């Protein structure tokens, strides 16, 4: 009788040993899956917007496009951090995300000022409005993926990127507003909206910085 009891105890203990190891692997895989899916969504969004930008020349759309493309690239350091299963690497990836957001704000602001100084005609307004709608849908889908995974996995960097994508969705709606404004004859509205988008992105930069900085895991 003692032997079976010992075998059961050993098996039970062995199961718990795996339980202490597996969560790290599961978290890494789940993080990589979320990052990869959001990357694919944002890349498709950016490509669609790039095609419309080449036809329309809209600065508001360019600001949104640069930002969406930057968002897609921020998935790479996050994926690397999840692959390493390192809290420190994850936090550093979060700082990279913040830097990428700030850079996109600077590009959007520069292009907006340049277009105010050197006005150009904005064409294909219907396509421009549709591109803004695509930006909203793409960012909202990416936000849902990142936020759900970030909260589930306890990843401040992923949560910051998720909220960032959600706000970007509403920024994309400004592109729709730009198309409507130009359609009624307010040509200067396009670069002005581009500048407004850059200010919103700067606010996102600050909020994302606070989220990543407050991460207790590596403080």
Short note summarizing the structure:
This protein has one domain (2-218): Alpha-lytic protease prodomain-like.
Q: How would you describe this structure to a colleague?
A:
- This protein has 219 residues and is mostly helical.
- It has a single domain (2-218), classed as Alpha-lytic protease prodomain-like, CATH 1.20.1510.
- It has helices spanning 2-56, 59-73, 75-84, 87-117, 125-153, 156-183, 189-213.
- Helix 2 packs antiparallel against helix 6 (156-183) and helix 3 (75-84) runs antiparallel to helix 4.
- The protein is elongated, with a radius of gyration of 22 Å.
- The N and C termini lie far apart (52 Å).
- Residues 5-22 have low confidence and may be disordered.
Write the SSE topology.
Layout: H1 2-56, H2 59-73, H3 75-84, H4 87-117, H5 125-153, H6 156-183, H7 189-213
Keywords:
219 residues, elongated, Alpha-lytic protease prodomain-like, mainly alpha
Please report the number of helical segments.
7
Q: What oligomeric assembly is this protein in? A: single chain
Instruction: Please tell me what the overall shape is.
Output: elongated
The CATH topology corresponds to: Alpha-lytic protease prodomain-like
What's the end-to-end separation, in Å? 52 Å
Strand proportion = under 5%
Total domain units: 1
